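This section describes the prediction task in plain terms. A model, or a person checking by hand, is given the sequence of a single protein chain and must write out its three-dimensional structure as a string of tokens. No templates, partner chains or ligands are provided. The sample shown here is typical of the held-out split.
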Amino acid sequence: MSTDVTGTPDRADAPGGRSPLAAAGHRAVDAAESVRANRGWWDEAAAGYVAEHDGHLGGRDLVWGPEGLREADARLLGDVRGRRVLEVGCGAAHGSRWLADAGAEVVGLDLSGGMLREGRAADARLPLLQADAARLPLADACVDVAASAYGALPFTAEPERVHAEVARVLRPGGRWVFSLTHPVRWAFPDDPGEAGLTATSSYFDTTPYAETGEDGAVLYAEHHRTLGDRVREVVAAGFRLVDLVEPRWPAGRDVVWGGWSPLRGRHLPGTAVLVCDLPG
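The expected answer:
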């Protein structure tokens, strides 16, 4: 549930004192399990994750995905100066820092207190809230723009509620831009090498990916939807889809991050960025 989380942490063992990893694969995971598991995971993984990936995230930058597409270049949010911007699933608030520097009145929100502590350590001035993105603790029509870079949506069993909540807190005419793993990637192994170029499962299987501890508890969960599902979700919440951006892997970018790599980036889309407007 952390924005700017492009890729997942090293999950060979459960962090801290949590139950050791016993199984990983596709299984049913409900909303409550997802919230509990992902809050716990990111709380304990936060410091290590930020230490490892801070350079990729740009320190004070809003980066839409592993391809390195920056909001400063893409301008998907429009001019944010003087506008109230909500970053949903802000993680360690890299994007919120950039938004504040760009002149926005920014509010960052994340499920993980551990990630928020990393954000406050980097910039104590930012207003950061801990909450589930499916239940935003904000008044109706109180923000102009909402953004989420790999935050919340890949980790929630309730994406429809997230979109509905964002629509509720946006003012008419507001914009909602979010990025997540491109849905087609779910048919391929999470491998940056040649093995990651061969589909091994059905794109249409939307069973969540989960990691389970020896005690049977879910330790980590990610949720898949097809691209059509994602479009229908935003339309059902009252948004108009303005653009679907599929960033190309730039020549010369040699970053390997989880399952993302130059090799796979030449052949498969890694990120989908949906740009949505709320009609006035």
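For orientation: Residues 9 and 49 are 6 Å apart (CA to CA).
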